[in-house]
Specification:
Length: 297
Amino acid sequence: MGRLGVLADLFASLPSLAGELERSGRSWAAVEADDPGPHPVETMIIGGQRFGADRLDRCPALRLLVRAGIGLDLIDLDHAARRGIRVINTPGYGTEEVADHALMLLLATVRRLPYFIGQGGADWRSTDYSGVRRLRGSTLGVIGLGAIGSAVANRAEAFGMRIVYTDPYVESPSSQRIRLDLPELLAISDVITLHAPLTTETRCLLDAAAFGRLERRPVIINTARGGLIDTAALLAALADGRIAGAGLDVTDTEPEPPRALLEHPAVIVTPHVAWYSEASRHDMARLAVAAATAKES
């Protein structure tokens, strides 16, 4: 087995990582993010930092890059491919957590929770009750019916919502979940939730043209990647009433979301925490070490 490197920043966010490495029996070395190298490692575990061609080239012997997490959009995959570096992620550690968080944002946004919490300490007689729709019988449009999208659909069905989805890789798993083209989904959905990866093809998937196809003034939920939504187009859709609100755990400018989103009364923003629980954080470390120390690596 070749030498294993671990980006040092990970130990703060994954407290169980060092213990998992020790239990693996594999020798390893911490690599500081600002160390120019070269680093004599063949396998590297990284987190959610940008890992471009320059950082890949600091590791001339690198053959396997393990992303502790899911998203690969900050890694220069083309350069990795040219170098013959295999890049893998660690799906499965936070599926239930992200689905729970998406449903929480859905309920809080549809039910106008921030506004009603504010009214709890105000004159109740002045409360504006408008704009809350019934969930049962409404349509949830799921963009990306992978593990997380399916878990969200399962939860939404328990609330009596009808499920439609768009995903080029998933056939209809049942007669209760109907696959549509994106324009069709946009036109009939009361709530739209995004669970697609961020790629060249999906960047700004919801842009001005997409928002122009909306017919039912839906709520938008995003717990996937901020770049899936054109923020300027989202704000414009909020301004002209094409959408009723948005629940966002990710934005395209994170970790500094636009003030216009943070201050909008119909928008809920959480700081990219949908994945998190104590159990999911431990599983992320465990899965990353398992991937990095597997025999084939």
